[in-house]
Design goal:
Order of helices and strands: EHEHEHEHHEEHEHEHEHHHEEHEHEHH
Number of strands: 13
CATH class: Alpha Beta
Distance between the termini: 11 Å
Oligomer: single chain
Shape: globular
Number of domains: 1
CATH superfamily: Luciferase-like domain
CATH architecture: Alpha-Beta Barrel
CATH topology: TIM Barrel
Strand order of the largest sheet: 1-2-3-4-7-8-9-13
Radius of gyration: 21 Å
Helix content: 40-55%
Length: 387
């Protein structure tokens, strides 16, 4: 059984430690002593390093540590993944770049040409994380006021055309959101491989679209019974269409030599959270089913770090310490490997992992956790079942 592991590239800056929330890598916070890329010279001037230099170091560290690629997130406060990817491709050899983007903001034919050009330039290292948006104020930032199910309908049509014009023949399409007639990629571009598509979304509308177009269905980590049920539903939908669905999980890890050290870092990080962050943590309006499921994992007025423990080696307050999903894995190297083995046994075919700081943790997870997979009790049971 081959399991693909991706790392996450923080396009919004990074923290030097999970124990405090300051963004001191990159220029998302005011430049001060101790900051990196850019940093300060002895005379207090910008040292000339850019954040792209730091992202390149993370990508190279992940590649060296056994990760086959990296997710490049896209939010209103990040650099753009389409711009970042070709720059980082020049710094790596085989590392794949998973570009996160919302289909509604690009013409599907133009997106196909962009994608084929990237495939041609990088030797086929382009992967897509298709996101359809969570509604509320963040969605309006993009100028998108479409209703939840309409956004997924638009995504489905986008991907219909995206794949259709790659087929080598003139392609016609008359949909609700898009219409094309006789469109196709040039023969030079059409011979490139269509990028692998990772699809996110927890609603019925999302699962229906994923069943039609996704190579991998991607979910944030959820309590194990929930995620087992979700994977079963999307695989059933895909089977009804005559296909076979692979599933993947995006999750942060705090992995340390001992469980005590891991929980100590979580406790320290929780105690250093500002009141402003706690207020923001209570959430903004959203019609995202996945975000709502994450919010349901945690008490909104938690006073102690251990109120957010939701299962063995599972903690539901990660989005207090950094942006992103709430639930993550905390424990010793062996315990983290055991949890990943458990998730593989429950249907995960791939992972996007992350840790803070992303540079150092790429090495740590790659060197200390990934080699233990299959050697834990859960991993041994999985191997035995496969025989």
């Amino acid at each position: 059984m081959s399991i693909d592991f991706y790392w996450r590239l923080p396009t919004h800056g990074c923290h030097a430690t999970i124990r405090r929330g300051s963004y001191d890598r990159g220029d998302w916070s005011p430049l001060q002593v101790g900051n990196q890329t850019p940093g300060l010279t002895a005379t207090g001037e910008d040292d000339g390093y850019r954040y792209i230099d730091h992202l390149a170091e993370i990508a190279k560290a992940a590649e060296l540590s056994g990760f086959i690629g990296g997710l490049i997130p896209s939010f209103p406060n990040t650099d753009d993944p389409w711009t970042i990817s070709p720059l980082l491709a020049r710094e790596t050899s085989t590392f794949r770049f998973m570009i996160a983007f919302q289909p509604g903001f690009l013409d599907p034919v133009h997106a196909a040409r962009l994608s084929a050009s990237l495939q041609r330039a990088t030797g086929g290292r382009t992967v897509f994380n298709i996101i359809t948006g969570g509604g509320g104020p963040s969605q309006l930032w993009w100028g998108d006021s479409f209703a939840h199910d309409d956004r997924y309908g638009r995504t489905t049509e986008f991907l219909d055309i995206f794949r259709g014009v790659w087929g080598g023949q003139p392609f016609d399409y008359d949909g609700r959101f898009y219409q094309v007639k006789g469109d196709q990629l040039s023969p030079l571009l059409a011979r490139e491989e269509v990028p692998e598509i990772w699809f996110s979304g927890s609603s019925d509308a999302a699962l229906q679209s994923a069943a039609k177009h996704a190579d991998y269905y991607l979910s944030w980590l959820e309590p194990y019974e929930q995620i087992t049920d979700k994977f079963a539903r999307v695989k059933e939908r895909t089977a009804e269409l005559g296909g076979e669905q692979k599933c993947a999980i995006r999750v942060d890890l705090v992995a340390r030599p001992t469980e005590e050290e891991a929980w100590h870092d979580i406790r320290t990080g929780f105690e250093n959270v500002s009141d402003a962050t706690r207020a923001q943590w209570r959430g903004q309006p959203t019609d995202s089913v996945g975000a709502s499921r994450q919010a349901a994992l945690r008490p909104t007025e938690a006073k102690r770090w251990d109120e957010l423990v939701v299962g063995k080696n599972l903690w539901g307050g990660f989005n207090l310490l950094r942006g992103g999903p709430a639930l993550g894995i905390v424990g010793s190297y062996e315990q983290c490997a055991e949890q990943l083995d458990e998730l593989i046994g429950r249907g995960a075919d791939a992972f996007i992992l992350a840790g803070t700081p992303h540079l150092e943790e790429a090495y740590r997870i790659g060197e200390e956790v990934l080699p233990l997979l299959g050697r834990t009790a859960a991993g041994a049971a999985l191997l035995e079942a496969a025989e």
